[in-house]
Structure formats: structure tokens, C-alpha cells
Amino acid sequence: MESNWSEIILEIKKEIPEKYFEPFIRPLKFLGSENLIFSIQAPSFFVKEHIEKKYQTHIISAIEKVTGKKYELDIFFEENSISNFQIEKFKDDSNLISKYTFENFLTHNSNFKTFTLLYDSLEEDFNVNPIFYHGKIGLGKTHLLHAIGNEFKKRFPSKKVKYISMSDFLSEYVFSVQTRSGIEEFRNRFKTYEILLLDDIQSLTSGAEKTQEEFLLLFNYLFDKNRQIILSADRPIQELTINDKLKSRLLQGFQIEIKTPETKLIEKFITLKSNELALNLDTNIISYISTNFNNDFRSILGCLNDLYLHKKTASVLIFDETQIKEIIESRIHRVKNSNRSEEELIEFVSTKYKQTKKDILSKSRKAEFILPRHIIMYILFENFKLNKTVIGRLFNTKHTTVISAISKLKSKMILEKELEKEVISVQDRFSFK
To answer: Model pTM?
Structure first.
């Protein structure tokens, strides 16, 4: 039977997400089987309890599939290894990417204040908490969070740091609340960090009330213990769709913006990265890339990677300028068609129907707000491929309300051809070709 255990594990892996499989299923050990009782060992009581509540049926099903027999499952645990498992599992769960450092972050007038503030935040006498910085996509916000974490680890190797995006924080919280011991473990783990680096906090919306409450509790605990909290977003605190208590706590700290970079910084960045890839681009091409990518460093990197890939696969030694521009224009086209944001859609529809963004996102039942609201929900679902729960969060409503709105608009479009044309014209503007 022991020879079947690896097959059973593979069957279970098909049913369970990787991030849960690794800590909960991978450490299990096969002990034996007798009288149709299948015995396994978990590394701790916490894991044993969690598996009994969440994954027992998956394991039994996998055993039956591999062996062709229906077994009962008996789970034991190593009594002396609970603390060791917790330590091992969370020994280095910082999530930091080592290549992002302060040393390789390009500074200029547009970001120097933010860079300096964040670098200084690691000094022992620094007493600004929390730090919140914001800026448009592709300006290096994530790079800076990782840089802080990596520098902190270098200076204080025995202390714990955590980088996490708000969407991952939400996922971990939702997973943890499914078991009583899970939520306690979640809270205890986050309380161990000396510095918390939270990315894309705009993902926390007013619809996620319980998560906001949990985050506020964690925030208050870390703040009271003088632990550093640093957050990034794509918009100022005042524009976040979070509750007033949390917004007030964030506003007590320091808020700073990473501004749109000057042309010199963008060209410096392109020169540096193109030299790393041995592209040998002349100043005209560097200027052409800088002009066409609207200060979006991610798209610029994508463009340079396109050029590098072409050079490598076509065995090109020297680029022809026409060739280069064709490759760049292909990337420009892809970016223009894929870089539409929910914010742009809401702004566009608000302007089109001469309503304020605030009114459209509100719960008001006035007729003049309902139609543009329904159109936005419909396009977010059809074109942006957002699920109805996420759309509901944007509008601070339930997913069932979103389902109803989309259904009503579809029915109305069948009966009213002019309305159908209006919706299609907005869809065309936000299509991904």
C-alpha cells in the first residue's frame, strides 16, 4: 500500500489549490492500512484538525480511486512537533523578491521624496506610522515595498517582515475563517511581523466588511506595538472605498505620492534596461519608446523584452530602425487594447450620461443613475471578465444585485435597439482585440 501513497497524493493535488496543498497535504505521512482503515500522520494537531474539516473527503476519494477500495481514514499527529511545524511553515514567509532593492531603483525628482522617506523608515529613531504612498500603475510602487523588506532583512536578519498584496490578504483571511483554529493561526501569524508591507490596498472595498474589521484589528495591534506599517495603492487614501474608521487610521500617518516621472528618468530607465539586454538602441529609438508608452515602466519593459526576443530568435546583430518601430508599434497596440481599467470605464460612462461617479456608485434608486450603473456592471462582466462578487464590491452591493442588473439590461437591450447600440459603442471602446 505504501507504494500507492505517492499516487494518492497526486490525485489529491488535482483537487486542492497549490497554496493549500503544500502546507497541509504535502507533509502527511503514510502509516499503514488494515481492515479497510487507512492511517496517516499529520505534522501537528492544527493540520490534523484542519484536514478532518476540509480535506478528509478529498483524501478518501483519492484512496478509493487509486486502490479501488472504500477505506475509513484515521489521522494521527506528532504531538511533539506542533511548534516545529509552525516555525518551519512560517520561518521565511516574507514573500520578498530579492532582485528588487534600493540600489537598483532609479530615482529622480518625481520619486525622490518617497524613496528617501521609505529608506529612512528603517532607522530605529523613525517614528512615522503608518506610511501610505500612491501613484499610477508602473511607477515602481511594488519595487519599493520589496526593497524596504530586503533592506530590513539585511539589517535585522532575526526579525520577521511580510510583503503581501491586499488580494492575497483577502484570500488568506477567507480561507482562515473556515475553521476556528485557522482564524486564530492567521491572527497570531500576522502579529509576529516587525514590519508589514501591504500592496494594492485599493483592492479592499467597502463590500468586504468582515475583512476590513479584521484588518483594522491587526492594524491597531501592530501600531500599538510600534511595528512599522507601510502601504501602497493606486489612489490617495481619500479615494479608497473603505470604512471611515480605517480611513481615519490611515490618515493619521504620512501620505505621499509617486508622481509621473520626467522624460529624463524614463529615458535613463530605457537606456539602463536596453544595455542589460545588449540591444544597443540609439537615442532616437529610446525617445520613441519613451514618448509612446505614457510613463508606464511595465509596458516599457515588455517592449524591450519583445525586441530582445526578436533579436535572439532571428539572430539579428544590428536592428533596422523600421524593424524596431514595427515591433514597438505591435506592443503599443496590445497595450492600448489591454490597459483599460475599471476606473476609466466608470469615468467614461459617468461623463457620457452626465452623472457624477459618486452618484453612479451609490445605492440611489433614481432612474438617471440606474441605467449607467447597469451598463457599467454589464461591461465589467462581459468585457473585463470580472466575477459578479468583485463587481458587487465596486458598487458596495451583493452579487445577486449584480446578477439582476445584468439580466435586466440584457432584456432591455433586446426590446430597445437604440439602447443596444449605445451599449455596443461603449463595449467597442473597451474591447480587448
So the answer is: 0.55
